[in-house]
Write a structure and sequence with these properties.
It contains two helices and three strands, in the order E-E-E-H-H. The chain has helices at about 60-75, 80-105; strands at about 30, 40-45, 50-55. The two termini are about 35 Å apart.
Length: about 110
């Protein structure tokens, strides 16, 4: 995830657990918008029952634009999100990496 944030066209923001219930909990969605002003946006929804892609229905996109704005309002900013992800990685993976290193250390485990 941290590598993705280095891309100039990608923004990653974390919605903290403390935000409580929010509109993003209904399931993932993607809004595709195009440079061509004549091209309608495309909405892709992922649900438990099926994936749905809506084309040529600009009215269907508006509630999801609103949801996106609300998610942005409750999410951490980009810097805080990166710091949070790094902290989680350090807390979850550093002890495991240390355990693997200790098990395969030729000084303590001469195999």
């Amino acid at each position: 995830l941290l590598d993705v944030t280095d891309r100039p066209t990608t923004t990653l923001r974390v919605v903290p657990f403390g935000a409580g219930l929010h509109c993003g909990m209904g399931g993932p969605f993607v809004i595709l918008e195009f440079d061509d002003p004549a091209a309608d946006p495309v909405l892709h929804l992922e649900t438990a029952a099926a994936d749905v892609t809506l084309r040529d229905q600009p009215g269907a996109v508006e509630p999801y634009r609103t949801a996106f704005e609300r998610l942005r309002d409750v999410a951490m900013d980009e810097t805080a999100s990166r710091a949070f992800i790094r902290k989680v990685l350090d807390e979850l993976w550093a002890p495991r990496a240390m355990a693997v290193t200790q098990r395969t250390n030729p000084v303590t485990d001469p195999r």
